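for the record, two folds in this file. i put them one after another cuz i was lazy. first one right below, seq on top, structure tokens after. the second one comes after a little note so u can tell where it starts
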Amino acid sequence: MLQKWITSIGLDIGTSTTKLIVSKLLIANQQNQFTLPGCQIIDRRVTYASSIYTTPMLNDVEIDVQRLTVLLEQEYKNAGISLDQVEAGAVIITGETARKQNAESIIHYLAEHAGDFVVATAGADLEGILAAKGSGAIERSAETNAVIANIDVGGGTANIALCQNGKVIETFTLHVGGRLIRLNSDGFVTYVSPYLTEFLKNNSLILREGEKAAFEKLSSICQLLAEETVNYVKALNQNFSLLVSPHTRSSIHPETIMVSGGVGAMMEKQKPKTVKEVAIHGDVGPLLAYHFQSIEVSQAAETTRATVIGAGMQNTEVSGSTVYIGSKRLPLKNIPIIEIPVQQEEKWNPQLFQERARAACMQASTIFSAEDPPVAIALSHFPYCSYKMLQELAKIISDEFIACFKGAKCLVVLCEQDIAKALGQALAKQRKELEIICLDQIDFTHGDYIDLGLPVAGEAISVSVKTLAFSS
């Protein structure tokens, strides 16, 4: 078994802070004379974690690209690595910064200048999923079979993910964060987020910029924010005016609630007793953290760096020889993978498969950006497939894909079994306007990203599966 250590880097640019982490990943190649090449991470070691920086801004709407670049170059030197040593990783822009004017240009600039990254601008739903994985909530739900909620509270938003059996089953985001109210060292209010204004007014708590903040008022505001957040997470309230986007809260009640993020990290500290102690970071984060702690939610095992991506491990292999490629778009990079089980019942049930396909595509359409192809649909639990089943499968996949990704022109489908050519032909007949790429013998996991290369042997193409790897 061949083994190789690679260097990976992760950069998280958040509303209030920016963090970087460097890791070493041990990659084992399982190749032998009977199988196609396949790799997996067998060891992971964090070798360097940067200081936590205040995200550099030019103004309220523009991130300072130049200062970010200088920061990254300095951190490379501090970590003792050079650009050509970085073989994998991820750049994630999260929270309010993901909605800033130049977020897209920044992420692509950094990806081009900082190594071979999985590139993603994390919207609210994706950020919640990343934080739940990084905090340990997803892993804990798999171990306990309980519903675990992770609340990742940063500077501008609280990203919530409900996890069960090792998967995220619900996500939503609230305008709740430490920097929605900012204070100077003398205790004067320098900023109140417009998202909070109506909420505070409706609760008879008026706070204006320029006024000297009273500790009791700040405490009441933070207590209300923490309690209302937890009540919504517990499904005790069905409506919350601070939702970032419309959301219908399910009746699922989590057994455990964990808090990560910068506010989560401060939960272990003592309660601030004066406005000066509250404003130590120029905001109300310490007081908000105390009030989360006081309602007996638990601090996550990983807090501030929960959303930092440890690495983008590349698993390079070769697709099966019976592929279907009805597109001239190759090569393609950084396509997120969504897994849909074909058959979880004793017999093939097209209605239940359609329900799973619809749910998976609808969730993906809220998480990933509208690039083309937006996702790769990975089919697991694939039994013997009759001609009739193949036609039904192709119709359901194409219908649900088009319904959720209306502007997409290219559909990528991955199969574990050797059936890609037949399925690709069936898909092409269903939707002649779609370019179809259908590959088999691909080892995938939900949440991975995939790169598709050019043909390397006959019809077979090179494939790179990138797994987001978090510290445990």
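(here's the note) second protein begins now
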Amino acid sequence: MKETNQHGGLCEVLHWIGGKHRHSSCSATLINTNPETDERLSIVARGTAADVDAAVQSAANVQPGLAALGPSAREGILLRAAEILQRDRDAWAELLIQEIGSPITKAMMEIDIATRVLRANASMARRMTGRTYPSDVPGRMSIAIREPLGVVAGITPFNVPLIKSVKHSSLPLALGNSFVGLPSRRAPQIADRLATLYAEAGLPDGAFNLVYGLGAEIGPALIRHPLISAVSFTGSAAVGKQVHADCGQFQKRVTLELGGKNPIVILDDADLEKAIPAALKGGFIYQGQICMASSRVIVQRSIADAFIAAFVGAAKSLPMGDLRDRSTVIGPVIDDASRRRISATIADARRLGAEVLCGNQWTDNRLNPTVLGCVTEQMRIAREEIFGPVVTIETVETESDAIRLANSGPAMLSAAVFTRDVDRAFTLARSLNTGMVHLNDMTIQQEPEVPFGSDGEAGFGREGMETGVDDFTKWKWITLAGSPSHNKTQ
């Protein structure tokens, strides 16, 4: 990335290949804009299949040397990367504010989570442990060792670009794999800064590479490249299905995190003093543009009136001020296409009888916190991820109704349940069709150690430390035959 007067002072973002910035093999570019003002932020290289090939070849060339560095060296690089990230946290926060419209508190949270992920994954350089096995063959030693896969690809979204880029890259790097990333077109400067951060931390040139562009144009070239062994993808279900199909066709490992329609279930014995703040934060943090956001509240009818009155009143008061003000919760929706989609989805729900309890008013590129009542299963908004500051409320009579309604959607990445009854809580946790359930807490949770993800329309496989060892290494079985001569006394 460099400043240039050639483009009117805009930042120019170039591919990062082999430890150097490179122009595209063609002259095409993309324009990235500030989601708050729609002003132009940067001119971004628009990659081609040739650029993808150059990045993958660079990664493949350096990978054996990266694996040969040994665990202490790889661990040290990632720990230094974490230190540099914390050292420059204010600059990172400003970049997250400008490029993706992140309020400062969400930006700082993202930086801290990414730092924890780097530190945790650094330790995995020492976790490529093997096994010994008993053998029926007399004198045989039978062992299995782990080896790096080779080159791993990562495709990341705009909403948590630092967290996801770090998650997708740092674990493969710790295990001795090299990496090629295709970042969101909405967050190129953040990706570029991560590349230079890794370089400063001492990562060998070519171990981490980035190609920018449109996923529809160059994503298949990356996924199908014969030197790519595994793919990590975070994004929409529609694109995720194609990624999954390509990986299956070309026999590549794949992990998908696809988001979903996530419910927070409020049972009649819930502590509303805890449930309401959790529903607010889970539904509206980063203006609802988080894959784990609880955009769907399911509440038992006996407490519905009390919950709705308090929840709507609190939603109306959520601050929409300066993104650098720590009290601000609601920022801009990422782009015009997303704003039109959100408005159309709300209009569809209203046409079918939904009631606007608050919000549904735009202030420039920000949508006031919006809560819809009288929502039914027939409405798109009850089933589809909206990715905006919109929360729906559905009422049910019984606990069984709550389970059925929560499970009725096509995808559920995360869920939350509020109840004072532990047995009741675990019954619902086991009954909800999702890979992650949080009891008496919000749906948005993140820890580097856990198996993160869900199934079906919401994902495939799990992100995490232990699961990642299996995802990004391969087993090799080695035997050593015993020789009678070795046992003779000389």
